[in-house]
Write a structure and sequence with these properties.
Length: 126
């Protein structure tokens, strides 16, 4: 009987650890997408979203959008940037210039700056 009590205590503690670990992993300010963002209904209305390029980063770095939504990247930085992916590519964007792309296929689209390869972003289309 004593062994069963210890086993139950270990299982409960392991469950609590995993629960709090997952909460901390998805805490605000991280680039993790929440479960709610990933389960967007397929009949959601398309949106127009903007991603800012500033300080050599994409903001937001990850975004989840409904099918047929349009993303517009705006270069709010002084250096020239570009958007490069396997699906879409922009010309070089000087300060203030924009590039837009409409996502008509579901999936996960990773992209980066064609000039500064450390700048990366992700679009999730549901």
């Amino acid at each position: 009987m004593k062994n069963y009590i210890y086993l139950i205590i270990v299982i409960v503690l392991a469950g609590l650890f995993l629960f709090f670990f997952n909460i901390l992993r998805a805490a605000p300010g991280t680039s993790q997408l929440t479960e709610q963002q990933l389960q967007m209904p397929s009949d959601a209305v398309p949106t127009q979203e903007t991603i800012s390029i500033k300080n050599f980063t994409f903001d937001p770095g990850s975004i989840s959008i409904p099918l047929n939504s349009t993303i517009t990247w705006v270069n709010n930085d002084s250096p020239i940037h570009s958007i490069k992916s396997n699906t879409f590519n922009s010309p070089n964007l000087d300060t203030g210039q924009t590039f837009s792309f409409t996502f008509d296929q579901p999936g996960t689209f990773n992209y980066s700056c064609g000039i500064h390869s450390s700048e990366k972003g992700t679009i999730i289309v549901r």
